[in-house]
């Protein structure tokens, strides 16, 4: 898409009230100023890139959306807008997630052209997939597993009670923070550009997808009892009923179907 003249676009830049408001306003008075920052890119996709940034020993993560590609973005549903809305909702609901510091958007009519999302960095965190790969011994700590499992079950139950489905709830999108002095473990959610509220008749399938995604790596690191304990906590029950057993069966079937689909795709390549 050709560059749209600036006089046809609108820009919005919001710095949220926080202890960081003054330093962010001074460093980044406009959204455009962020696109002039030359930084080491941590992660990059066809629409966005992420880098870390420090101001006065305070650390932030900045995500720059330099384009929006989906057809839905013409109707106000760009990936940037969805991710920003979800992250703000997480903060509003008091969920453990990166606090939003600032966000801005450049758009033409209802289409997002560019966007910026700044979140406060959460110190001493590692994503759960990285822990599974490099520190698998942690899963032998029953206290660690039970605490983490309960937190994630509570978060997912809250999501689904509001008809909200994450749609990408893989271990790489769960940050784990540990306090060496107290052995306290805390889970944080990051990166949710696909989450949204879902209506019937799609809600049950999307709930199933969330449960299957979070259970994807679990068989490699958790016992059946630990996985069952997570499901019971998610359902807020102590024993399984017939409907619960059917849900578990569908989760396992969903995972099996996904594995077969991936195998077919790889075979075609």
Attribute tags:
alpha+beta; single chain; three-stranded antiparallel β-sheet; 2 domains; Transferase(Phosphotransferase), domain 1; Phosphorylase Kinase, domain 1; six-stranded antiparallel β-sheet; 269 residues
Summarize the entry for a quick read:
By secondary structure, this protein is α+β, with helices and mostly antiparallel strands. The chain has helices spanning 21-27, 79-92, 128-134, 142-161, 203-214, 218-221, 224-235, 242-268; strands at 10-15, 43-44, 48-55, 58-65, 100-108, 111-120, 125-127, 164-165, 174-179, 184-189, 196-197.
Q: Which range best describes the helical content: under 10%, 10-25%, 25-40%, 40-55%, 55-70% or over 70%?
A: 25-40%
In the CATH scheme, the class of the largest domain would be: Mainly Alpha
The low-pLDDT segments are: none
Number of E-state strands: 11
Topology, element by element:
Blueprint: E1 10-15, H1 21-27, E2 43-44, E3 48-55, E4 58-65, H2 79-92, E5 100-108, E6 111-120, E7 125-127, H3 128-134, H4 142-161, E8 164-165, E9 174-179, E10 184-189, E11 196-197, H5 203-214, H6 218-221, H7 224-235, H8 242-268
Antiparallel strand pairs: 1-5, 2-3, 3-4, 4-6, 5-6, 7-9, 8-11, 9-10
What would you note in describing this structure?
This protein is an alpha+beta fold and 269 residues long. The protein has two domains: 115 residues, Phosphorylase Kinase, domain 1, CATH 3.30.200; 137 residues, Transferase(Phosphotransferase), domain 1 (Orthogonal Bundle). The chain is built from eight helices and eleven strands. Strands 1-5-6-4-3-2 form a six-stranded antiparallel β-sheet. Strand 2 and strand 3 form a beta hairpin. The longest helix is centred in the last third of the chain and has 27 residues. It is globular. The protein starts with 9 loop residues before the first strand and ends with a helix. The relative contact order is 0.10. The model has no long low-confidence stretch (mean pLDDT 91).
